[in-house]
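USER: Please consider what follows.
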Amino acid sequence: MAQNPCDNQDNANMTKGCVAELMRQFLVDIGEDPEREGLIKTPGRVESAWSYLTSGYTADLDTVVNEALFTETCDEMVIVKHIHFFSVCEHHLLPFYGTCSIGYIPRGKVIGLSKIPRIVDVFSRRLQLQERMTRQIAEALDDILHPLGVAVVSEAAHLCMMMRGVEKQDSVTTSSAMLGAFRNDRGTRSEFLSLIGINQM
């Protein structure tokens, strides 16, 4: 019997072909024939897809930021809205997707705007909970910039709710993480929420 290439491998050091071999066995287990024309290359495609979808585990924030921090006296709110993301729910390995809106108040440093969506990618390309992802993005920006405050709001649709279980196709989940001035100052928090288009009662 051929040795499974996944044997004795930890998650961080999977050999090439490991996920593909697992996918071939999965196809057999659900009653499919992995040798039929439409499925011959599917295990390899799935391995490539999952390598991309979980690339956040090996991403390095310092490399992502790449020294794109600039001295600036600006102390007004900086907001990047509607950053699209795709992630995978860790409970059922089904996708969830949506947008993030991120704001921060500089304390002597600003970050290149393109780096903010890249930081979102670092944490969305993992097996995730939306709530945890939102907090991780906020904490990462806080660690990088040491700003007066950081705010992150994510809104997402979850296929685990749409395709199975309660099967509610129009439901949207919102989660937020507020640090510093956004947590401590109601006016600052309200300004941010208003600017990203969230109505407040």
Remarks:
- The longest helix spans residues 130-145.
- DSSP finds eight helices and seven strands in the chain.
- The mean pLDDT is 92.
- Residues 162 and 168 are 5 Å apart (CA to CA).
